[in-house]
Design a protein that fits this description.
By secondary structure, this protein is α/β, with parallel strands linked by helices. It is built from 5 helices and 8 strands; from the N terminus they run ββββββααβααβα. The strands form 3 sheets. It has a 4-stranded mixed sheet with strand order 5-4-3-6, covered by helices on one side. It has a two-stranded antiparallel sheet with strand order 1-2. 32% of the residues are buried.
Length: 182
């Protein structure tokens, strides 16, 4: 939904809260696709959802509301262990390079990990490891665009905007890491 405000156009973001095993997620969408998932421990949390630019989904099935309902259904299935891939339309904002990295992330199979270096090689530039890491860190749709599946060159858990504990939980949930402790 677009509205005019003081002679400049701005976008009103539709959001929905989703209770998950990693805490309450805030999902955002436009009529064309999911635009963001914010984890409770995200470095880049959502702007204040109390602002006039953010509208909570009222369930009336607007285009954005339908996207949010579909994403929540698929996340519920994922957390229940019944879904390994997502098919929600995405509408994330980013540079051309960031979108290329995010597309590669979507190709990392459930239950597996890869490294930043391996992704840089797949992009055709082995020296782009840090740029891949930066793009990975700007991924606005974690879990569905599985940036948690990217690990350091030696398999160490590094660089997840939702925090290392959340990254570990997601990888353990997918069977990509052996559960530690009882």
């Amino acid at each position: 939904m677009r509205v005019q405000a003081r002679n400049r156009e701005h976008v009103v973001t539709t959001f929905r809260r989703f209770a998950s095993p990693v805490g309450e997620l805030v999902l955002t969408a436009s009529d064309s696709g999911l635009t963001g998932i914010y984890l409770p421990t995200s470095r880049h949390g959502p702007p204040r959802v109390e602002s006039e630019d953010w509208v909570e989904d009222d369930g009336r099935r607007s285009g954005a509301g339908a996207m949010l309902a579909r994403a929540c259904e698929q996340l519920q299935e994922y957390f229940a262990g019944a879904r390994t891939a997502f098919d929600v339309p995405l509408s994330a904002s980013g540079t051309t390079f960031e979108r290329r990295v995010w597309e590669l992330l979507r190709g990392i199979p459930y239950g597996t990990t890869t490294s930043y270096g391996a992704l840089a090689h797949r992009l055709g530039d082995p020296r782009a490891t840090r740029a891949v890491g930066a793009a990975n860190g700007k991924n606005p749709i974690p879990i569905i665009v599985p940036c948690h599946r990217v690990v350091g060159a030696r398999g160490d858990l590094t660089g997840f905007g939702g925090g290392i504990d959340c990254k570990r939980w997601l990888l353990e949930h997918e069977g990509a890491l052996m559960r530690l402790g009882g």
